[in-house]
């Protein structure tokens, strides 16, 4: 089921997550130069898309028994819930460090759009990657599980 192409796309996704994290300013620093990560987002979206397509193709070709598809579905659905919870707490903690949302006058990101040099990691991080993969896996495994007779 694993292929060289899938591994390469996975590694590119990890590299893009690390790049976004490294180029995003921490709440304690001041940045007046705009959002340099905007230039990385096309690369990030492309790597996520390529990985997602390859993952779906490989998963659809897999020949598992009905019980295995059911187990894959429940595990991926559990990962979906867990990663959503972790993403929620990650976003909550970051917004607390920033002093609140962009509408709060005391916030470091006051009057900034939601996508800015301090909040890039809200959108691209390990939790969102796991969420993305678990959604794809849940959907495909559910339909494969329902389709199997034995």
* Low-confidence parts: none
Rounded to an integer, what's the Rg over CA atoms?
A: 18 Å
* Strand fraction: under 5%
DSSP helix fraction: 55-70%
Morphology call? elongated
| Mean residue pLDDT | 91
Quote the distance from N terminus to C terminus: 21 Å
Largest sheet: none
Q: Determine the number of helices (DSSP H or I, runs of at least 4 residues).
A: 5
Q: Pairing-aware structural class of the strands and helices?
A: mainly alpha
What's the SSE pattern? HHHHH
Q: How many beta strands in the DSSP annotation? A: 0
Brief digest:
67% of the residues lie in helices and 0% in strands. The chain is built from five helices and no strands. It has helices at residues 4-23, 41-61, 66-98, 120-123, 126-147.
Overall description:
- The chain is an all-alpha fold and 150 residues long.
- 67% of the residues lie in helices and 0% in strands.
- The chain is built from 5 helices and no strands.
- It has helices at residues 4-23, 41-61, 66-98, 120-123, 126-147.
- The longest helix has 33 residues, at 66-98.
- The radius of gyration is 18 Å and the shape is elongated.
What brief labels describe this structure?
5 helices, mainly alpha, 67% helix, 150 residues
Summarize the SSE layout with pairings.
Layout: H1 4-23, H2 41-61, H3 66-98, H4 120-123, H5 126-147
């Amino acid at each position: 089921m694993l292929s060289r192409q899938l591994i390469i796309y996975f590694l590119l996704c990890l590299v893009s997550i690390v790049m976004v994290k490294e180029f995003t300013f921490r709440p304690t620093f001041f940045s007046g130069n705009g959002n340099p990560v905007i230039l990385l987002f096309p690369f990030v979206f492309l790597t996520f898309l390529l990985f997602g397509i390859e993952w779906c193709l490989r998963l659809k070709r897999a020949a598992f028994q009905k019980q295995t598809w059911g187990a894959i579905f429940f595990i991926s659905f559990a990962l979906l819930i867990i990663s959503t919870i972790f993403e929620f707490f990650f976003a909550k903690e970051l917004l607390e460090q920033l002093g609140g949302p962009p509408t709060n006058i005391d916030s470091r990101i006051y009057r900034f759009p939601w996508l800015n040099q301090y909040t890039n990691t809200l959108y691209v991080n390990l939790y969102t990657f796991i969420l993305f993969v678990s959604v794809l896996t849940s959907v495909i495994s559910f339909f494969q599980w329902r389709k199997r007779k034995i």
